[in-house]
């Protein structure tokens, strides 16, 4: 007995409402890229320590970058029904906002494959933000992680998506 079809337009459910992993076997490989963003806002004291690289736990942004990259490669172990992927590129960048004591995190993930990398980019941003929180919580427990969202994705059957301003 096989589960096929979808319920209500959701691809991770069959006609009976049972969860399934989408069969991507017949899809053609295309170049796919996803860009996600998120923000962590903190106290001016914690922000100054991060910016100057003098946080007691070390290079916060360097460690957060590595954590985000590592997380992008583990999505299939974290989120049910996602496929293990051979990611070809991941970049994590940070924009510091002195006025808001905030750090914007941007993750770009690329692949040539049969399924997209939106979840990988969103996970990379999320884990990078959580790593920043973890490394700074001794100074500021009131940090806020927010606005994690997909900005853009290209490739695949659905084509290009760009988040409206």
Largest sheet: 5 strands, antiparallel
The CATH class of the domain at 42-153 turns out to be: Alpha Beta
What's the architecture of the domain at 42-153, going by CATH? 2-Layer Sandwich
Q: Helical element count?
A: 4
Describe this structure in words.
- This protein has four helices and five strands; from the N terminus they run E-H-H-H-E-E-H-E-E.
- With 165 residues, the chain is of the alpha+beta class.
- The protein has a domain at 42-153: Alpha-Beta Plaits (2-Layer Sandwich), CATH 3.30.70.
- It has a five-stranded antiparallel sheet with strand order 2-3-1-4-5, with helices on one face.
- The relative contact order is 0.25.
Keywords, please?
165 residues; alpha+beta; Alpha-Beta Plaits; 5-stranded antiparallel sheet; 4 helices; 27% helix; 28% strand
SSE layout:
Blueprint: E1 30-41, H1 44-52, H2 60-72, H3 75-78, E2 89-97, E3 102-113, H4 118-136, E4 144-154, E5 161-162
Antiparallel strand pairs: 1-3, 1-4, 2-3, 4-5
Helix pairs in contact: 2-4
